[in-house]
Structure formats: C-alpha cells, structure tokens
Amino acid sequence: MQLREELLKLLEEDREFRYAVAGLLGFREILERLERHQAELEKLWSELKKLREDMNRGFERRDEELARLRRDMFEGFKRHDEEFEKIWREIERLREDMNKGFARHDEELAKLREDFNRHAAESNRRFESLEAELKKLREDMNRGFERRDEELRKLREDMYRGFKRHDEELAKLREDMKRGFERHDEELERLREDFNRMLSIIGRIEGRLTRVERTLEKLTLDIEEEAREVVRHRLREMGVDAKLERLELPGLELDIYGASGDLCILGEATVRLGKRGVEELARKVEALSRMRPDLLRPRTIVLAYTSLATREAVEEAERRGIWILKATGDVTKPPELQQ
Q1: Helix 63-118, helix 27-61: angle, nearest 10
Q2: Across the chain, which distance is largest between two alpha carbons, in Å?
C-alpha cells in the first residue's frame, strides 16, 4: 500500500516521472515519430526551396520561354501544397484525436484516484481493478496507435508516390529547359558567326577608308603646294616677291603665309570652297591678330585658293574683301596694291 501511495504521489507531483511512464506506455515513440516526420518534411521543403532558386536563375536567361514553364511549375507546386495541406490537416486531426484520448485518459485516472481516496479500505481490490483497466487501456491504446501507424504509413507511401511524380515532372521540366538552353546556345553561336562576318566586313571597310584618307591627305598636300605656287606667281605679276609657306601655331593653322616688307599674305587652300570655309578663314585671321600680332603687317592680303567655289562663298568673300582664285584665274577681284 505504501508503494502504491508513493507511485501515485510521484505521478501527481513529478513531471519527469510522468513523462517516463508515458514513454513506457508508448507516448514517447509517437512524439519521436512526429519529430522524424517533421524533420523529413523540413528536408523536403529545403530541397524544394533550393530547386526553386536554381530554376529562377535559369529562368532569367530565357524569360519568355520559361514563363510558361514557371506557370506550370507554380500550378504543380500549388497541387503539391494542397496535398501537403491535406496531410497536415490529417495529422492535426490525428493529434486532436490523440489529445482527446489523453484527456479522457487523464479524466479516467482522476476519477480512479478520487475513488481510490474515498475507498481506502478497498485499495487492494481497486488497485488490481485499476491495473486491469490500465492494461486493457494500454492494449486498446496500442491497437489504436497501430492503426494510426498504419494510416501514417499509408499516408507516407502516398506522399512518396506524389513526390516521385513530382520529381519525374521536374526531371521532364529540367530536360525541356536543357533543350531550350541548347537551342539558345546554338542561336548565340549563329549570332557570333554573323557578328564575326560583320567585323570582317567592317575591317575591309576600314581598310578602304584608310586608303581614301591617304588619298585625301595626298590630294590636300598637292593642292596646298599648287596653291602656294600659283599665288606666288600671281604676286610676282603684281610686283610682290614673298616666300610662302604653311603656318602652324598651337590651335591655329594656315595653308598659306608669307610676308614682304609691310605686306603679309594669309590664305587657305581647298578643293571646294563654301560659305563656311570663307567664314572659317576670316576667324583664323582674327585669331592670328590676337595670338601673334607680330606676324602681321600694316597691309594684309587674305585669299582662298580653290578648284571650285560656291555662289554663296563668292558672295561672302566679296563682302569681306577676300580674294578667291584658282589655277585658271581669279574668282573675285584681286586686291589693288599701291607701290
């Protein structure tokens, strides 16, 4: 009797002892199984999260094509989540049923404890009856747990089959993505070949432009030499003997420059002379007067040598008093030099 009282007191006051008894009765196994199930589900969720991140990186390379795949994948995840919701709801119902069973069990134990206290004289008989009742309750509970385990096993099998189908679908999706990426790589390779051909064409064009630039440079040098020769000859006819050369200063260049006594000659040589060319020549003369007034003389001849002068250029030159000439003669009136 004293042993039973001690056991009852421990059950009532010692929580660890109650848990130990619960473990012997099979409760701890259920909790451990639930924890393993939770760990497996978390592992599955982690794997799904990693897979989703990999797919998102792949989708960035093929947005338009993978948009349709993403919708299909989201629908699959939705179905998968719905299956999980069903499983969780079933587990919650099982947990509620188990808790209700535990509550009924606790109520029964409380009633037994009250009966035991009220009928101390009949403690031995009641304790034996309680042990028999507990044994039967344990057997019923074990059978109930076996049924629950069988149901959980079936649920796990269904869940694994669902995961297998999901994995097969993901494998198909991955294969489709791989084929899409291969097509994308082939298209990039063709674009790269087209780009290389374009670079080759550009290279040939650049070669031609280089030859054109050299030709223009030679032509420019030739017309400058021609201009200085023609202008020197015309000046001699006008009674002026001056050495003509190219003037190069920082930020300023003139094709024709010469000085003789109180007279200086400033000019440009160009194949085609337009109005802007005349204006540019006038700006250069003005800039030279600011930068190097020592190169100027009291009298100045400003001229432009050209093979072709536009009507606007001629009008602008006449307005500014600029002499335009070419190898065959004067385009505008030459300056009058007083000896």
Answers
A1: 170
A2: 160
From the list 102, 95, 104, 101, the residue with the least C-alpha distance to 151 is 95
Q: Which residues contact 58 (CB under 8 A, 6 or more apart)?
A: 66, 177, 181
Do the domain assignments include residue 339? no
pLDDT in tens, 95-146: 888 888 788 878 887 887 887 678 767 767 876 877 788 788 778 778 877 8
Collapsing DSSP to helix, strand or coil, 284 comes out as helix
Tens digit of each residue's pLDDT (9 = 90 or more) over 94-109: 788 888 878 887 888 7
Co-location of 6 and 143 in the same domain: yes
pLDDT tens-digit profile of 226-284?
999 999 999 999 999 999 999 999 999 999 999 999 999 999 999 999 999 999 999 99
Exposure of 66 by Cβ count < 10 A (0-12 exposed, 13-18 middle, 19+ buried)?
buried
d(CA 100, CA 102): 5
Same domain, 74 and 169: yes
Residue 37 structural domain: 2-191
**Do 171 and 314 fall within a single domain?**
no
Q: Is there a domain that residue 297 lies in?
A: yes
Residues 133 and 275 in one domain: no
**Pair of tokens at residue 103:** 């509550």
Residue 136's H or E segment, with its range, is helix 123-237
Whether residue 185 sits in one domain with residue 60: yes
The burial class, CB within 10 Å (0-12 / 13-18 / 19+), for 230 is middle
| CB neighbour list of residue 61: distance below 8 Å, 6 or more residues apart | 181, 184
Phi/psi-derived region of residue 184, left when phi > 0, alpha when psi is between -120 and 50, beta in every other case: alpha
| Residue 201 falls inside a structural domain | no
Interior angle at CA 93, CA 90 and CA 96, nearest 5:
150
Number of domains in the chain: 2
Please tell me the pTM assigned to this model.
0.39
Q: Does 86 fall in a domain?
A: yes
